[in-house]
Amino acid sequence: MMQPRPLAITGDRELLDDLLRIGAAAGVEFDVAQAPTRARPYWNRAPLVVVGGDVAEDLAATGPPPRQNVVLVTRAAADPDMWRRCVAVGAQTVLELPQAERLLVEELGEVAEPATKAGLVVCVAGGRGGAGATVLAASLALTASRGGLRTLLVDADPLGGGIDVILGQEEALGARWPDIAGREGRVSFAALQDALPTFGELTVLSWHRGEPERVPREAMRAVLDAARRGCDLVIVDLPRHVDDGAAEALARAAVTLVVVHADLRGVLSAAQTAALLRRHTGELRAVVRPGGIDPEVISTSLDAPCVGVLPEIRGLVATLDRGDPPPLGRAPLGRFCSDLLAGLVEAA
Fold first, then answer.
1. Could you tell me which Pfam families the record lists for this protein (predicted)?
2. Lesser CB count within 10 Å: N end or C end of the chain?
């Protein structure tokens, strides 16, 4: 059965054009009634009713049944009579366009894409350069998606060369960060998924290979909010420095994994990284690369529990250079990622 659509009631052609444009931005289509008498079949079943100020009095005269989720929309600024009309039709608020366009997009988005999931956000950071955080982030995302979890993999590092390369998908069609970096406000996950490279249950937001740009905080917020509504899991590969976009991701993370080389320099560097990350996020956990320092010592140094030791993968660089993704499945890295994900999901 087709899901009911929002209802727009207006005879003002210019206002209707505005509403249709705003609906498109929210990823929804309206049922349209150009006269109040034609609205009755849709009135009770529409998830949201948008009433034009031009027909508010005529609509009130028809005596529509009381209901929730009715808004009055006008293009006339500061009309003192508009609130009386709002009360007359049982609307909850008056939205003046164009100033309130973003609010209307959010209202439409809520009814078009109610939160069906509460995606777990996991950030992954390297304790130092070359720690393998990007490979771990990509491997976790691949493992989760192959296990049936709808997953978004976000590359937040503009200097990392593109996480799509780790997946062997650098030629995949779809948007990259520069194409959506200007977005803010509510974004439909369905629209985001349609725009980005998607492989089964895995959707990827990566970087292009051009001049690096920053991720605006507002854009990261819009992406993660959409992903949390539409995904089971969101994996964010962080840069080595905490810029605005990374800070936004860290603030929304249920847990942040720090990949630590088990040597003296690696542990000292990771301890500094952990101190920086703690300014923006709460739950830190260490993932250890094998070396000469015991994981318990590393855990104490970082004041963060160790959740496992990454297996060494022979020939990994050659595998990635061939354009193949990291070896997962029943391989040691695949089993490690499966166990780690199970623990993270259970803890959440």
1. CBP_BcsQ (PF06564), Rv3660c_N (PF26563)
2. N
